[in-house]
Amino acid sequence: xxxxLFALILAGLSGLSAHAADDVDQRPAWLQTDVLQAALDMQLxxxxxxxxxxxxxxxxxxxxxxxxxxxxxxxxxxLKRRIKTTVNRELNKLDDKxxxxxxxxxxxxxxxxxxxxxxxxxxxDLLKRRPPARNGSDAGALGNNNPDWH
Length: 150
Hints:
Radius of gyration: 15 Å
Shape: elongated
Distance between the termini: 42 Å
Number of helices: 6
Number of strands: 0
């Protein structure tokens, strides 16, 4: 039961409430089925779930801010590489945060989670299928509507 609650809380991070898409491809990277399954496989206790949720929220917020800053800049040279670098930097920070409270076996399962999350955040083919951002901007999911991605 706590694992289902954990998955629901992760889903709540996205702020999709009534606008949640039924199609898996329409979900943000952290709500993809394989990413959620990897999160459940870590078997976090209640305290760890709260710590993980906080660390993930901070990482996603920072990633969103940094990515928006990249997209607002008029320089689109090597944008795909710069976004991948940004994702990697933020995920490295997340690694440091979770290493404090995860056990060795949970860290191994966390690496699977991280790899899947990173794949969904940086694979241009996956990003092309995501809709534009709900706020009306053309930024979409990590720049999927930018010509440099296509």
